[in-house]
Amino acid sequence: MSFRDDLAQICEEYPELKFDFRFMEWETDFCRFYQSQINYNISKTSFILYADIYKGKKSYGFSLVNPTKNLLTEKIEEVKEIIDQLPEDPDFVDIEDDLTKSEEKEKINNIEKVSLEKKISILSQIAEAVKPFHFNIFGTFIANYQTVFMVNSNGLNKKEISSPIMLQLKAVHEETEVTVLESFGGENFDTFDLDLFIKNLMMKVKAADKKIIDVEPGEYEVILAPRCIGEYFDYLEGSMSAASLDAGRSFFEGKLNKQVFPSTISLVDDPTEPGMIRRSYNYDGHVYKKVVLIENGVFRNFLVNNYYSHKLRMKKTGGIGASLVMKPGEKSLEEMISGIKYGLYISNLHYMNFINQKETSLTGLTRDGTFLIENGEITSVVNNLRFTEKISDILNSITEIENKTYVVPMSSNYGNFNIYTMKMPHVKVKKFKISSSTKTI
Question: What's this model's pTM, rounded to 2 decimal places?
Answer without folding.
Answer: 0.95
